Amino acid sequence: MELRVNDSKIVLVQGDITKESTDAIVNAANSGLRGGGGVDGAIHRAGGGAIMKECRAIGHCPTGRAVITTAGNLKARRVIHTVGPVYRGGGKGEAELLKSAYRASLALALENKLESVAFPAISAGIYGYPLSEAASIALTTTKMFLEEHSGIKEVRFVLFDDKTFDAFSGELKKIS
Question: I need a surface site. Which of 3, 12, 75, 135 has the fewest CB within 10 A?
Fold first, then answer.
C-alpha cells in the first residue's frame, strides 16, 4: 500500500526492518542509546558492535530528537536513532514529542542526503502508545514533511505484525 506525495511516496510493508536496504533505517531508541528490546535490540544485534560504539560516543538523545550512526552489518547505509515518548495517558505532551521524533528523523535524513528511509512504529511497542493514534501521527507528520520538503524519495513504514500493519493501513486510507 502506498501514497504519493509530490515527488515522494509513503509505502507500508509488513516485515523486518533489519532486512531493509533503504539509505537509512530508523531505530526506536531509548534516550541513553544503550540498545534494548524490541526494534532497538534487533537493530543492534543485526548491525553489530559498530552501531553501539558510535552510540556510546554520542551518549544521549532526548525524547523527540534524533541522531545518526553507521549501520554496521545492516543493508542500510545509516541508522537514525530517535526517541519516542512513553505513553502516559496522552496529557503529558506525548503527541507533540512523537511528531517531533518523526520530523527530527526525516530532517536528519534530508540533511545527510538520504533518499529513502524506513521507520518502525515508534512508541507503539513497549512504550505503550495506542496503535491507531501512533499510526495517525506517524503518517500525518510524514505526509506534511514530504509536502514541505523535497529530496526524500521514499519513506517506508516496516511494520512487524498484522495488527500494526492493519492500523497503519487504516490510517493511510484516511489521509489519502
Answer: 75
